[in-house]
Structure formats: C-alpha cells, structure tokens
Write a structure and sequence with these properties.
The structure is a homodimer of 188-residue chains. Chain A is an all-alpha fold. Chain A has two domains: 47 residues, Orthogonal Bundle (Arc Repressor Mutant, subunit A); 110 residues, Tetracycline Repressor, domain 2 (Orthogonal Bundle). Chain A is built from nine helices and no strands. The first copy, chain A, starts with 11 loop residues before the first helix and ends with a helix. Chains A and B meet through α6 and α8 of A and α6 and α8 of B.
Chain lengths: 188, 188
C-alpha cells in the first residue's frame, strides 16, 4: 500500500487511517508540544473525520497512549546476543536510536507526560513503563540463567535509560556510541 | 500578611497575588496535568482577574516557566560542606526532598514539559536547566580547587539527578536515604 507497510495486509484501510492518525499525533507533538492540540486538530491533520478518531480511540489520552506504546514498544524487540554485555549494549543503542530519531524526543515527552505524578494513581503511561520493564527483566533473567550476574531492571533504568531519557528530554544530544558504551560499562 | 510571608514586605499585595497564582498553577498541574488548563483557569483558582495574570506574565508558558524556575531553583542554594562527598550527598538529598515534596512531581513534570525536544530550538525550560547546571558546576569546581577530584556537572546529571528525576516522573517512589547515598557512592 504505502511505503513500509505489507502490501496485502488485512484491514488495509483501517491500518492506513491508524498510521495517518499516529503520524498526525507525533507531528503535532513536535510542533506544538503535548497538551496544545485537540482531537479535532489531529483529525484535520490526518485528513479523517473527528468521529473516526473518537470511534476508534474514545479520547485524546487513549490515542496518545496508543501512539506512545506503539512507538516505544512494538518497534523494538529485546536483543538476545548470548551475553549480558552484548544484550545491554544492543538494547541501549536501540533505545538511543528510538529516542533520538525524527519523532523520538516528541514521543519521549509524550510518554513522560502520560506517566503518573504519584498523586493521581495509575495513568495510561504507567502501563507502557510496566510492560517495558517486564521485557527488560526477562532479558536480564536469561543472562542470570546462563550463569552471568543478576541485574534488576531498575538498575538498568537508573544507570542506562534514565541518563539517556533525561539528556534527550533536555535536548543534550547526540548520544554518541562512546557515551552509550560508557553507561553500560559503568553499570557492569 | 498570610502565613509564611514576611509581614511588612514591600509590594506585599503583589507578592501575595504572585504566591496565589503560583499555588494555583501547581494545584492545577497536580490535578489535571500539564496542558489541561488555561490562564482563565489559573486566574479563577487564584481568585484574581485574567487581566492581572496576562499583565504580569504575558502568556501561560511564561507563567509556567516562572513557577518552575522559582520552585526548583530559588528554594535550594547549593551546599558547601567542605568535601565533595558531603556536598553531593547534601545536594542529592535536597533535590530528592524538592521533587518528592507535595507539589514536587507536578513541578518536575512541568520542568520537563517546558524543556526543548531538540527540534524547536531553545525553550523556556532550557534556561532553568542551564542556570541549575551552572550552580552545580560551581560547587564541583570549588571541590576541585580544594584538591579533590574534578567532576563535570553532566556526570552528576547522568548518575544522580537523572535516576531520581525519572523515578519521580514514573512514580517509582520513595527515594530512600540509602538509595540516594548509593547513587552518590557509585558516582564517586
């Protein structure tokens, strides 16, 4: 159909509308920032009716969460290189590519905006984080089962993900390969 | 005048309005999240006219930046304990107190929301970060001048501030004294 999508995928039109709406969201976040646009703005940018957006996602927050989940999770299966150091380096490099890519900073801002402040109970973005942390822990557990040292997903969050997230959120880029390997080396 | 404010401070009424508007902003961020309220909402919550807010701050973004700057900077002079380890421990504990306090997570979300995505040029929140980093570097430079090891403010950002920021943004709290000292110990 269009580039990067399988040609005979069932539900082609629905998938195309989904992709257009997702792209409209990331464009609007990049241009205006989170919170500065409505469902109507997204629909207009995507060239679809407001009602199509509401019917499929129900609310702006659900749509935003869907975009963040899709962008930060589905695109990146966990590495399985056979060694803990290899897995962590590949994982860190993959996250760095995602969050510094064309819409990466916008999507990261979105993921943070959708996360709990600790005062309002669980928010949609917390599900994103929990899911991601489970995938990461599985990778670390595989290494431990092979006889390598045990690491907790929170260690990786603190010393590999958090520095990269904060640098991208604050615009302190690029994240060079040396910088990323340094984070992994320090943790190990 | 009211609690916590000097009684005969010049410009007392102006200071009181300022404090009410700031508190209204942090309340609204806690309750609704960044982006989900207008200058009108702030004015109504603070009990002042919309025009007072516009006259003083000009725009919602300027007001939000003023709140974030005041909350994250003015309240916390840099420690000067005589040793690098002591300074870092005191600084980390102070930041942890700020960002986990009653409005802390809301203010941190705000500071991140106001920071650059790297695609839009300098935003208001970047000034906040640059100012904070300069203060931090001065503290580190004092230690180096005393003959202690040289550290860069970015090392502190990566390995002390970033983990605490991300944990608070994602609602992974509390930040215990052991956790905070562990971050400092690992950096040193």
């Amino acid at each position: 159909m269009n580039e990067g999508q399988p040609a005979r995928r069932p539900g082609g039109r629905s998938a195309r509308v989904g992709a257009q709406v997702h792209q409209a969201v990331t464009d609007l976040i990049s241009e205006r920032g989170y919170g500065n646009f409505t469902v109507g703005d997204v629909a207009a940018r995507a060239g679809v009716a407001d009602s199509s957006v509401y019917r499929r996602w129900g609310s702006l927050e659900t749509l935003l969460t869907d975009v963040a989940l899709t962008r930060l999770n589905a695109r990146s299966p966990m590495p399985d290189t056979g060694s803990l150091a290899g897995d962590l380096r590949a994982y860190a490099a993959q996250v760095a590519r995602e969050i510094t890519g064309p819409d990466g900073p916008a999507v990261l801002h979105l993921a943070v905006a959708l996360s709990s402040t600790g005062q309002q109970g669980l928010r949609a973005g917390d599900i994103l984080r929990a899911d991601r942390m489970r995938q990461l822990q599985s990778m670390l557990d595989r290494a431990h089962e092979r006889g390598e040292r045990a690491l907790d997903a929170l260690d990786v969050l603190d010393h590999i993900l958090a520095p990269m997230y904060i640098r991208v959120l604050f615009g302190i880029v690029p994240l060079t390969p040396d910088y990323i390997d340094g984070l992994v080396g320090r943790l190990l």
